[in-house]
Amino acid sequence: MSSCTFATPRVEVIRSRGSPLSARAARSSSSSKFPAASVIGQTNTDTSHERLLSLGVFPRLKEKAGDEQYPFVVFSAPPSGSEDYAAEVEAALKYWDGSGAFVFTSSTAVYAGKDGEPCDESTPQFEIGESPRADRLLKAEAAVLAAGGSVVRLAGLYHSQRGAHMYFLKTPSLASNADGLVNLIHYEDAAAACVDVLVAQFEGRTGGGEVFLATDGVPVTRKEMVECCLESDAYDGNMPEFTEDNGPLGKSMNNPQTREKLGWVPVHASFVEFVEAGATDSFYPKRRKSTWK
């Protein structure tokens, strides 16, 4: 399709197993903005294709991709799945026809703020060469921004049955500080933020080449995460032993500029509120702790 209207775009979502932007959330969010959207999900393997079809996403293997271009493209695959991550992102940019918007999901790991200090969109990022982890992301970001696409830096992602809380609950001992902060955003809110950026760029409210930050703005300590889960009927597990009393505290993240520019507000205001409300979302139905001893 060489052109599109706002009501009937074709959206290309490039993802891999374990992708930060769930196809379920992406489809749900894009449907609310683009009711007649056709969403294609490109993956490295066909493991998730049956599930993608059940969500209304048309799956396609990366090896089967042609030279067709799309007005809206979201690249959401972690660096761990590629030897040359920047090259993967540059290849994805070729699927974009330059008309609607291109969104690349990055990470808040690129911010170089000092431990324990507040961090937002204005916080300096690492310079190339200072952090190998940040380097991979920053090089990919640079390619997207140079092409006129947008970057959404995501805090730690979670949903009812996936995220740091699930790891903490099943791990007896962790070499980390119990009071260390974890910055979070629900998968559904992350997807909604990405779609809001697509829409904003399409409507001209953003000009492309911009960076956004997606976080709920309510950091929680590791200990608090586990405590609220154990107080809920939704989770089983135990409080791990946190063995680093003097370990890093982490940054305290917020995103006032992103919220103002996009008008975006997370549905799940914080991890604690999400759990206290029953830890229910579109990924898994409500469940209760096992009563078996």
Automatic annotation (TrEMBL):
Keywords: NAD. This is NAD(P)-binding domain-containing protein. InterPro entries: NAD(P)-bd_dom_sf. It comes from the Eukaryota. Belongs to the NAD(P)-dependent epimerase/dehydratase family. PANTHER family: EPIMERASE-RELATED. It comes from Micromonas commoda (strain RCC299 / NOUM17 / CCMP2709).
